[in-house]
Amino acid sequence: MDLIEELKGYKPFNEQEEKDKAEMLRRLLSGEELYYRDNDSAHLTASAWVVSPDQKRVLLCYHNIYNSWSWLGGHADGERDLLKVALKEVQEESSLRHVRPLSDKIFSLEILTVDGHEKKGKYVSSHLHLNVTYLLEGDPQDALHNKADENKAVRWFSSEEAESVPTEVWMRERIYKKLNARLKEYE
Fold it and tell me: What pLDDT digit, counting tens, does each position of 45-85 carry?
């Protein structure tokens, strides 16, 4: 399904999602190219809230740029199927092999600010990630391996820990708590 149609049909969880949905639609409907990082001010990303089959654990990685435990995900880089991006990023960033979507529908929406930083020896200016999150299920028995150029570690946390171990206050308080609250709808 086309992302614009998916967004139009998405029911926001809270006011943050309502406003972010409107802004994402405004940008997409304006014809702004958002699927590539060439857009220095904003581009599409896909993230995954990866839970264990009993939904009591969440997979996080220790992200190199943010110096914090965080969800897994990455840039669309031209791919229009953002669920496919989320699945690919989880496998690349964690080596998790047994992972599947609990739904092919959007789980959450966020517009996230990214501060300027160095990546591969080059400066990347501050910009926005227009992020679509999917709910995935992974097997905690799978071997995990970090992707050294992106993260220092990957591990499972209790859902409560997933809200407390990240050091980025906005992500911890506004995003990860929201994702856990949304997860209760799937119990």
Answer: 999 999 999 999 999 999 988 889 999 999 999 999 999 99
Which of helix, strand or coil describes residue 74? strand
Cα separation, 67 vs 140, in Å, equals 24
CA angle 138–172–13, rounded 5-degree value = 75
Average pLDDT over residues 163-169: 94
Sequence-distant (≥ 6) Cβ neighbours of residue 151 within 8 angstroms: 61, 62, 63, 64, 93
Reference 10, options 116, 109, 99; nearest CA is 109
Kindly state the average pLDDT of the residues 4-27.
Answer: 97
**Phi, psi (deg, nearest 5) at residue 81:** -95, 95
> What DSSP state is assigned to residue 39?
S
State the average pLDDT over residues 116-145: 92
What's the whole-number mean pLDDT along residues 120-143?
94
CATH 3.40.640.10, domain 3-186, yes or no: no
What is the distance between the terminal CA atoms of the chain, rounded to a whole angstrom? 26
How many whole angstroms separate alpha carbon 44 and alpha carbon 24?
A: 9
User: Computed from CA positions of residues 28, 111, 70, 141, in that sequence, does the dihedral angle turn out positive or negative?
Assistant: negative
At 107 the three-state DSSP class reads coil
